[in-house]
Amino acid sequence: xxxxxxxxxxxxxxxxxxxxxxxxxxxxxxxxxxxxxxxxxxxxxxxxxxxxxxxxxxxxxxxxxxxxxxxxxxxxxxxxxxxxxxxxxxxxxxxxxxxxxxxxxxxxxxxxxxxxxxxxxxxxxxxxxxxxxxxxxxxxx
Length: 141
Description:
Elements: E1 4-7, H1 15-25, H2 34-42, E2 45-51, E3 54-63, E4 68-76, H3 85-95, E5 104-107, H4 113-117
Parallel strand pairs: 4-5
Antiparallel strand pairs: 1-2, 2-3, 3-4
């Protein structure tokens, strides 16, 4: 694999790629409006994964930088899957200095449990204490 670079520089993010992936290819945000993606990025700590200056992966963390974080919208473009990009991307998220010492770090995944387990994620210790409002098709007309 070429030299992988992971950055939190918001200016480097390829918003067209991120919106296209989330709205057309993700299973969790299909149909999401570009304005919603931009607002989410502007209010999150974002990570881009780049090969030869081209973005190939993305992750964002919503956090108060003190007690809580939520990892969301993690993806790697299809052509780069299976080459360690997601492992490096999640490792960079977990090593970020502003995300240390949090009481709770959460995420939701339907198919990448082993990736996140490497970083200490487990099913909720007290699932009965968690609640949610979930609208899976909110962006689909």
